[in-house]
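Troubleshooting log. The previous structure file for this entry was overwritten by mistake, so regenerating from the original sequence record. Sequence copied from the archived sheet and checked twice against the printout by T.R.
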Amino acid sequence: MVTFDGSRLTIEDIVDIAQQSSTAELSTDSEFRSRISRGSSFLDTLLEEDGEIYGVTTGYGDSCTVSIPSDLVTELPKHLYTFHGCGLGAMLSPTAGRAALAVRLASLCQGYSGVSEVLLEQLERLLKLDIVPVIPEEGSVGASGDLTPLSYIAAVLCGERQVYYRDEIRQTKDVFAELNITPIVLRPKEGLAIMNGTAVMTAIASLAYSRAEYLAKLATRITALATLTTKGNAHHFDKTLFSVKPHQGQQKIAAWLRDDLEVGTPPRNSDRLQDRYSLRCAPHVIGVMQDALPWVRQLIENELNSANDNPIIDGEGEHVLHGGHFYGGHIALAMDTLKNTVANIADLLDRQMALMMDTKFNHGLPANLSGAEGERKAINHGFKAVQIGTSAWTAEALKLTMPASVFSRSTECHNQDKVSMGTIAARDCIRVLQLTEQVAAAALLASCQGLELRMKNNEIHSDDVSNKIIDLLAEVRTISPFVTEDRALDSELRTMIDGIQNKSWDLYSD
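Regenerated output below.
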């Protein structure tokens, strides 16, 4: 259970709700409820006194100079989510949709958005009943927040548009009628409070962080397998060697490799002082991401635990504060950085694949790691095409590392004349992760094939390999048997990718 009461949440809280391993609960604490009520009551008082409030008694954005007649104020929130119903592209997955609901609820529970308890309870209801808005990915520039994608959450709260429910896409009004849920009518400021924030980019960023954290561990284990496969020099990961370059994440990667390769005895099966960089420098490549993760976490979690709409409603001090907290620059920077470090891991594993495939570099293994024997060697090609695919996925991942945050576009009559592009950066990061996980799946299959070839040739014995590597090899073999005769590997690769994304294999303890 994750309780929403304005207290600090973690990336793991959001990911757990998104993946349905935790449920969301709105706090019933009287002080929390009172804090929420003070904001909405303060807005009611201002309206009675004919106070001018941006987005309540004025138009939105560049239209802030347009005064709204008092008899039309209540209609304004519906118009806001209605005219923003122009999202295009693929739809966010139900997992990402749940994350977006949870992140928006977290922000509104800070108590500075002027919303009612009824709205918060409707968001909680969607999460508890797993009614997930269908949200198009495209259409946000990341300031004034995720207006267009979040309009789909606002509309669903009011019984409009579509939702994922029980593995189907259905009309919200039909699901609400079936479950006896009353659509809400948004109060003044509530449309803006839902839509004018960074919930979608922060939700995607939280999911990206979780996947990247696991990927660093998986890339390390694959490097250990590739080192064994190519008869690499395990002493490249020596403790004393790494003590003189004190990047903590890099040192952690080297320690994990030492644990896998049992460094401390003379190097096994290696007559080379120095391996190629994709093996020797693996801790330095993976370590960059490992060292970036704590900083990325800080940026994401600070955004997650912020009030990030506009204006900020201080019900306690009775202030309406106009600002720009919807600007997603911190998420943009975090995601631009993370996708760069992830793509570098794709490149690293792709280079390790190339070494394992090529008889000029794999130190005695068959070309393309083919397991065929005798005359059948002539017609079998092992992992040749998989390595081509790996190069393609890596190239695409590297191509997407251009920072999205530098592509600000002036929009909305130059009101939004400097924007973050945070949502695009987050979407790019997810795509780079997907491509890199594909590379990792291929590299894991290939390195397991290479290790078994060494074992079949009695060059390596199972007693010489750590239990963790033997265990992973056995788990991989339940998905993809040793490749003797050529076969299509696409379905096995997809299953491997699912395993990676579900964190199916126990790798290293932090």
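Strands lie at 2-4, 24-26, 88-91, 132-133, 136-138, 162-165, 168-171, 312-314, 319-321. Archived copy saved in two places this time.
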